[in-house]
Amino acid sequence: MDILLTTMVGLEDVVLNELENDFGLRGEKLRNGRVVVKGDPEDVVRLSYSGRTFERVMVLLAVEEGVEKLDDVYRAVFSAPLGEYFCPDLTFACRSDRMGEHPFTSLDIERTAGQAVVDHFMNATGKRIKANLEDPDVIVRADLDGDVLYIALDATGYNAMHKRGYRVYDHPASLNTTLASALIRVGKWSEEKKLLDPFAGGGTIPIEAALYARKVPWFRYRSFLFERSGIIDAEVVRNVKEELLSEVRDTRIRATGVEKYGKHVAGARKNAESAGVEDTVTFKVGDASKIDVDADIIVTNPPYGQRIARPKVVSELYYKFAESAAERNIPKITTVTSRWKWMEDALQQAGYKIKKNFFVLYGKLHTRVIVAVLG
Length: 375
Ligand SMILES: C[S@@+](CC[C@H](N)C(=O)[O-])C[C@H]1O[C@@H](n2cnc3c(N)ncnc32)[C@H](O)[C@@H]1O
Prior knowledge:
The protein has 375 residues and is α/β, with parallel strands linked by helices.
């Protein structure tokens, strides 16, 4: 089957890398944050439970090009092989994300696709499938990107995969966990390397690093729609769960989070405890412009001056942070910010060379991931 993964625009290559290295799968980039990979039902389960840099796992049913009208949406959904994966005894909802200019809304697509699903089953089985918009067994996605419609069964469910389920303290500017995991991967952090996040906030980056090193599967904290919809056989789910549990390790890493405010440090500790990694990540109050921790790599998400701090303060902070990291001889920095010009300048002035700088659409924010090495 074709498995469709979605991620932030800009992280597609990171997903391809994760697929190849952690799952032995070779994916292919589609447009705007989509990657498709051939796999079996076990892979749908494995990718859902252990995937770190993508947001949704779906079973791709059809890709329709040249979709300009709602009639085109209807026809494509009506003829998709829905009956191969679920029966009309289940309830369903259609969801749609739309990119580009269209003379109709996502809601119009959802309504049209919903009617097509009902008519599909009526035509094939004589049974009327029930819609349940609040709490459906199955979500049929009809995502329109320009004139390309992706029809898929959503294995993930209402909450995208960045909602890991372990976060009990919500930092006001917490980093999306998917992006945190992508930064860790892009920086080529591995468990023997000392990791430092000097702007740690609620602790997302060190916690994600520990969970990665320990291969902790997400079913420890949350549920997924495929578990109840029956689009994947229950025995397959059980077997993959057992396999993944047998792979969980007790690895100890050295990861430190430093943060200016005590209440965030306390929150980060609570998050680490909830994730079950409090024994291997350390959080403390400190100042990113006076780094006093040794590290092989910094992976960090500094303030952008957009939500919390003022821009001028942020620019000065970047220079002081970069200078302090260089003084401490920290060889590598991986970071993400919407103020990338300032960060690049600050890093270069401190003696770092920029090795990577690529665009990531983080919500509505245009950010760049930067990897810099000293000397
Ligand atoms: C964008 S937030 C980081 C969020 C974090 N990645 C998370 O997921 O929760 C930036 C953090 O840097 C902290 N901060 C600002 N100035 C600092 C400084 N000089 N030293 C240490 N932390 C600082 C802020 O208090 C804030 O918690």
